[in-house]
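Researcher: Next sequence.
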Amino acid sequence: MTETEPPSHDVGAQDDIELRLGASLVHLPIIRSVAANIAIRADFDLDAIADLRLAVDEACSTLITRAVPGTTMVCRFTIDDDELRFSGAVTSADHEAPSTASFGWRVLTTLADSADSWVEPAKQDGQGNWVHVELAKRKPTLT
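Model: Next structure:
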């Protein structure tokens, strides 16, 4: 396991869930499943669950394709009363955040209520950067 810090903006609330997995596409089904199960437990409707599942998949795919081989992807789910937030990060050689003009980013922003990405220099050894993707999905309001 190669990982030297970020994410962890403090291990947060009691309901936060953090996963650390190899940055590999073979782990996408695990992350999709976790996202869907958390959304179900948080009483999201079926459409919002499906959207969140696909948005998390796209966010993780974006991160994994930028990850240094053999490194760890860190994912955190934070549950609030009206929204579920996902943040993920990988160690990368990239110096720029994922393009917001790509088809994948368009899909992600269509499925999520908000999305952001950024790059942060690795502090530990100065080698590489942390690439982050964060998104949020709000519970639909009944009208």
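Model: The chain has a mean pLDDT of 89. The chain has three helices and five strands.
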